[in-house]
Design a protein that fits this description.
- By secondary structure, the protein is of the alpha+beta class.
- The protein folds into two domains: 47-180, Jelly Rolls; 213-339, Jelly Rolls, CATH 2.60.120.
- 13% of the residues lie in helices and 32% in strands.
- The protein has a six-stranded antiparallel beta sheet with strand order 1-20-17-22-14-13. Strands 2-3-10-5-8-12 form a six-stranded antiparallel beta sheet. A four-stranded antiparallel beta sheet has the order 15-21-18-19, with no helix packed on it.
- A hairpin with a 2-residue loop joins strand 6 and strand 7 (131-134).
- The protein is globular, with a radius of gyration of 24 Å.
């Protein structure tokens, strides 16, 4: 086929673009690659959610959303940068859930990995892959992808936790699966000691890989002693010695002593921060939030962020992010204030 060239001034560029669009293509001509961003341009924006406001709304919903539907009674934290997406920051989901006394969920499983940070619980429990565990305030529970799990409230007050998942990522990849267990509970009938129908044999879970207890976290942070710099960081490991909770989600606790501010950092991949104890000032880019216990803050990808504690009591923040996803894809990049 003969290739011909023409004087650019004589070409009907608008007509060419119409024909290209009809064929389902678009030209990318710039040698400077101007069609793509030169640096991360996240749609997510820095945002703050007040726990007291969300808690009141979640409790109000228990009055008109039936307990049988409790598996889906969750308040999703929507980011104003993309309100049409059920994403709190980047490809991370966060939602507040409440179980009233005597309520439980139908056992189910799904493709997204779920991490649950417990705000309030006196008699709450969760069961993952046949293992039932009581949960208390500050505990972190991991539900690996496609593991049967269920939850319940055997106490006298509400159980409140925050779902922290990679739902937006799994949905974007068109890889989401959800399944209800054939009967309400996947646990063995009380007193029989027999496994529930069709449940695969339960493998022994390593201590601390599905449930990270708050008292153990506080003890570990105290042992770190803020490393002589006024703050300390403790990463949570996953099953079977994995360095992260899952291949897509990492989680950590950060302790900040009174009068201390952490060095600013930024990284590819979003993060969601939940105040576990005390109060902090969260600076995200040019925005500053005053966050109290239970509050949530969204940190977009590649935004500088830091934590400050101007109070008289130590503060602790639970943070989860997309670091493993970025690292696995070869896209992980991080900077700190020291090399800013």
């Amino acid at each position: 086929m003969e290739v011909t060239t023409a004087n650019p001034s004589s070409v009907d560029v608008a007509g060419y673009q119409r024909r290209a669009a009809h064929a389902g293509v678009v030209g990318r001509w710039s040698s400077a690659n101007e069609n793509l961003p030169w640096r991360p341009e996240p749609r997510s924006t820095p945002q703050h959610w007040d726990y007291r406001t969300l808690r009141a709304l979640a409790l109000e919903a228990t009055g008109f959303v039936r307990g049988e539907a409790g598996a889906l009674r969750v308040l999703t934290l929507l980011n104003s940068g993309h309100p049409e997406l059920e994403a709190t920051a980047g490809h991370l989901y966060s939602g507040l859930q409440v179980l009233v006394p005597g309520e439980d969920m139908h056992s189910h499983r799904h493709s997204p990995t779920a991490v649950r940070f417990v705000h309030e619980s006196d008699g709450g429990w969760t069961a993952v892959d046949g293992e039932r565990m009581p949960v208390g305030p500050g505990d972190v529970v991991l539900t690996p992808a496609l593991k049967w799990h269920e939850h319940g409230n055997g106490g006298r007050g509400p159980v409140v936790w925050q779902d922290c998942t990679d739902d937006p990522l799994v949905t974007a990849l068109a890889a989401s699966h959800f399944e209800l267990f054939p009967v309400r509970s996947h646990l063995a009938p009380a007193g029989t000691g027999d496994p529930a129908p069709v449940l695969p044999a339960v493998e022994g879970h390593e201590a601390g890989t599905l449930l990270h207890r708050w008292q153990h976290v506080r003890a570990a942070l105290a042992d770190l002693g803020a490393a002589g710099r006024g703050w300390a960081e403790l990463r949570l490991g996953g099953p079977h010695g994995a360095p992260d909770l899952s291949p897509t989600v990492a989680a950590r606790f950060l302790a900040v002593e009174p009068g201390t501010t952490t060095p600013a950092r930024r990284h590819t991949g979003a993060a969601v921060l939940i105040v576990a104890a005390g109060a902090v000032t969260v600076v995200v880019g040019e925005t500053t939030f005053a966050a109290r216990r239970g509050d949530t803050v969204a940190v977009p990808s590649w935004a500088w962020w830091s934590l400050g504690n101007a109070g008289a009591e130590p503060a602790v923040v639970f943070a989860y992010d997309e670091t493993p996803l970025m690292r696995g894809a070869g896209l992980h990049r991080t900077e700190t204030e020291e090399n800013r």
